[in-house]
Design brief:
single chain, alpha/beta, Rossmann fold, five-stranded parallel beta sheet, 10 helices, 5 strands, 50% helix
Length: 232
C-alpha cells in the first residue's frame, strides 16, 4: 500500500512538472492608447515636449496605475493648423481605431486666419466623428477641449482688438460646446485658465502667446479625473 501511494505521488509530481514547463506565465502588460488631435495648443508650441498637456496627462495617468500598465500616446498636431489642415493630416495617417482615449482641441487658427465660421461648423463635426471612430467607435472615449483665448496674452493685447478676439473665440467655443451636448460628448472648458494670462504671466509661454507648462498642468488637473473615468 505504501509503495502504491509513493508511486502515485511521483506520478503527480511529474505531471505538475510537465504542465509547468508547457505554460507561459509571462503575460503582456495592459496598455492604454491615447490620441491627441489639434494644433499648437496640443503640440505644445514654445514648451518642452514633456510639458505639453497630452504628455502631462499621460504622466499623470501613469501614477494612477501599476507599473505594469503602459500608456502609448500619439499626437497629430502642428502649429498653425486649421480644421482643414488637421483633416488633411489625419487622412494621410494610417489611423487605427483602437484608442482608449481621444482628445480634440482645434479651431483657433480658423478664427485667427479669418476663415468662414461655417467652415468650422462643418469640419468640427467631421473631426469629432473622426475622433469617435478612432476611439473604438465609442463617443464616451472622446474629450473635446475648448479653445484657449490668446487675447489675454502679450501678443493678443498688441495684435488686433482683444475684445473682438475674445468674442469670436466665445462664438467658436459656444458652438463646440452645444454640438457636444447634443451628441452627448464630453466637452471640457479650459478657456478661463488662459484668460488669466495678463494678471498671471506665468501662465503664458516665453513666446508671449501660447500657454506655459504651468497652464497646461492646470488643463490636466481638470482632464485627469475625466480621463480616469473613461479608461478605468
Amino acid at each position: 500500500m505504501r509503495n502504491i501511494i509513493y508511486f502515485s505521488l511521483l506520478v503527480f509530481l511529474a505531471f505538475i512538472g510537465c504542465s509547468s514547463s508547457d505554460e507561459t506565465p509571462i503575460t503582456s502588460p495592459n496598455t492604454f492608447k491615447i490620441l491627441s488631435l489639434g494644433d499648437s495648443y496640443t503640440i505644445g508650441q514654445s514648451v518642452c515636449e514633456s510639458c505639453r498637456f497630452p504628455e502631462q496627462l499621460k504622466d499623470s495617468l501613469k501614477l494612477q496605475f501599476s507599473l505594469e500598465t503602459g500608456f502609448d500616446l500619439n499626437v497629430i498636431a502642428q502649429t498653425g493648423w486649421t480644421t482643414t489642415n488637421l483633416k488633411t493630416a489625419i487622412s494621410s495617417e494610417n489611423l487605427t481605431t483602437n484608442y482608449d482615449l481621444v482628445t480634440l482641441l482645434i479651431g483657433v487658427n480658423n478664427q485667427f486666419q479669418g476663415k468662414p465660421f461655417s467652415l468650422y461648423e462643418t469640419e468640427f463635426s467631421q473631426l469629432v466623428q473622426t475622433a469617435t471612430n478612432a476611439a473604438q467607435g465609442d463617443k464616451n472615449n472622446v474629450i473635446v477641449l475648448s479653445i484657449p483665448d490668446y487675447a489675454l496674452t502679450p501678443f493678443g493685447q498688441n495684435n488686433g482688438n482683444p475684445e473682438t478676439t475674445s468674442e469670436e473665440i466665445d462664438l467658436y467655443n459656444d458652438f463646440a460646446e452645444n454640438y457636444c451636448a447634443q451628441q452627448n460628448i464630453t466637452f471640457l472648458n479650459i478657456t478661463d485658465i488662459t484668460r488669466q494670462g495678463i494678471e498671471n504671466p506665468e501662465l503664458v509661454a516665453s513666446d508671449g502667446l501660447h500657454p506655459s507648462a504651468i497652464a497646461y498642468s492646470k488643463f490636466v488637473e481638470r482632464l485627469l479625473p475625466i480621463a480616469l473615468e473613461k479608461i478605468e
